[in-house]
Amino acid sequence: MSFLQVTSTRFHTIHSFNFCTILQYRDFFFGFISERNESPEAGTKYLKNNATIISTFRVRADECDRLWVMDTGLADILGDAVQYAPPSLVLFDLYTDKLIRRHFFNSTLLKEDSFFANVIVDTERGDCDNAHAYIPDLGSYAVIVYSLAEDRSWRVKHNFFHFDPLAGDYNIGGVNFQWTDGVFGMAVGKRLLDGTRPVYFHAFSSTKEFMVSNTVLKNESYAQSPQAYYDYKLLGDRGPNSQSSAEFYDSETGVIFYTQVNKDGVGCWNTVMPLNADTQGLVDSDSDALVFPNDLKVDNEGTLWVLSDRLPMFIFTSLDADQYNYRILVGETREIIKGTPCDR
């Protein structure tokens, strides 16, 4: 994989407060909260405006040229957290950069430990209006399903969304810590002959991979019924120390790429193969450049993009300002799987 440095001149600062900086891109405002002890009233005119994003955790560009943004609405998550707005999905048209819709999640979907930190989109070109988004709730072990056509969301629970108590120990960049994060990584596979699509998923603190049909998640009443329990399948175990945050299905190769946070690397699994430790590939590992690969995606040209950010050091120790702490790495999917079990 190769390094790529990304810069942007499309954003500009329009105001700075003691507690936050407001950046503007076109007609949209992004708030970055920096001080935990300042009153938020100074920024009310921006923070209560629907044209504001408080805290973006994940984004996803779909096949219909739309950008989905998961805004937690939460500032200073590691300090004295302030919920400036309910969690929401923000949807943009990538051709016009205009806001298509914003969906605020109802408070009934939120539990005491809820945290929405990812968004996965289930759609296909030619059927864009019937898109669904899946939002893992890693803190209270559920998945929120959003229907674009109905502009409505619902909560789905299952035992497989929970973390594995034997897989919560991490050693990353010389930092040892324990997490209990549940369902986090999700990927939508290719359409099957019956018109359905498999949805692959795993908890962050787990080494196991699961699958459920998208028709289950998209049917609110059935998904919430006891009958749906057995529609969820265990695919297998990736092996020791294979905890992963994000995963992504590459339709060209049939391979799921996933982060390997305990191995400073990126793994792969060809979905035509059984899932076990022997069928997993490690496409790259680097104890400097890939310390905590946090997110990854494959674009429509067959390029894998990986973001690493040394998050455990930021949380538990400190970042070294003299080092590169944030990196974007890229690689061609067909090239990086050569010589691995994923090359089938």
Give the helices and strands, then pairings.
Elements: E1 2-4, E2 12-16, E3 20-25, E4 28-33, H1 44-47, E5 52-53, E6 56-61, E7 66-71, E8 74-75, E9 82-83, E10 88-93, E11 99-104, E12 120-122, E13 132-137, E14 142-147, E15 152-157, E16 169-172, E17 175-178, E18 183-188, E19 198-203, E20 208-213, H2 214-218, H3 220-223, E21 233-237, E22 247-250, E23 255-260, E24 265-270, E25 280-285, E26 293-298, E27 303-308, H4 311-316, E28 327-332, H5 333-336
Parallel strand pairs: 4-5
Antiparallel strand pairs: 1-28, 2-3, 3-4, 6-7, 7-10, 8-9, 10-11, 12-13, 13-14, 14-15, 16-17, 18-19, 19-20, 20-21, 22-23, 23-24, 24-25, 26-27, 27-28
Number of helices: 5
| Share in helix | under 10%
Mean pLDDT: 88
CATH topology of the largest domain: Neuraminidase
Word description of this protein:
7% of the residues lie in helices and 41% in strands. It has 344 residues and is mainly beta. It folds into two domains: 1-31 and 158-343, Neuraminidase (6 Propeller), CATH 2.120.10.30; 40-144, no CATH class. It has a four-stranded antiparallel beta sheet. It has a four-stranded mixed beta sheet with strand order 2-3-4-5, with no helix packed on it. The two termini are 20 Å apart.
